Amino acid sequence: MRSLHRALPAKVMGCAIVLASLPLSGPAFAAQEDVDLLKSYVGDWRGRGSAVLASTGNEETVVCRMAVEDTGAARITFDGRCTLAGRTIAVAGTMIWNEQVGQYEAAMSSVASFQGVAIGRRSGGGIDFELINRNAEGKEYRIEAAMALQDAQIGMDFQITDLSTGGVTTAQVPFTQ
Q: Which of 21, 53, 66, 154 would disulfide-bridge 80, Cβ 3.0–4.6 Å?
């Protein structure tokens, strides 16, 4: 799986990032190959990675677990918890194959006003999602997140930039079943 260079900013972790399911609609009949690719990630996942905290510059271990469930004709959801520097971060979201526009979409939001729809693109035998918090104006942080579904692995990378200080926290967590 190609390495993603994104990160998980520290101060937002304190706010407990919650990627929540947003309503996404897609037709009942999607391209079966695309739906099957999404559904191939259903199951229980565990991850161990690292984060570099903007506040200290120290590298910390991130330990995660995530459940991916089949929740519709062309939809999966993910729900998990990560622990970093004594804090627990809840993550959740929804991914679909949107037949109307012929693309993968992942709906995400957080308690830190992070929200948006990440567009997924096929990459070899998997899917890469990339989300940038485009509503960062007037906010304290700029958040970027990437998720790659590749070769029976899931990679999650985050980068959180503190807009007042310019400090950047990054994290990379590979998951396996």
A: 66
Residue 6: both structure tokens together: 């994104």
Place of tokens 């930039």: 161
- Which of 121, 122, 117, 120 is closest to 132 using CA atoms? 117
Measured CA angle at 173 (ends 40, 128), to 5 deg? 50
- Cα dihedral 31, 149, 111, 102, rounded to 10, equals -20
Residue 18 CB coordination number (10 Å): 17
Backbone angles phi, psi at 117, to 5 degrees: -120, 120
Tell me which residue of 141, 152, 78 sits closest to 114, measured CA to CA: 141
Query: What is residue 15's predicted lDDT score, i.e. its pLDDT?
Result: 28
Those residues with Cβ within 8 angstroms of residue 166's Cβ, 6 or more apart along the chain or in another chain: none
β-pairing, 75-84 with 168-176? unpaired
Among 6, 8, 11, 2, CA closest to 140: 11
Report the C-alpha dihedral over residues 97, 99, 101, 102, rounded to 10 degrees: 70
Question: How many other C-beta atoms can be found within 10 angstroms of the C-beta atom of residue 31?
Answer: 12
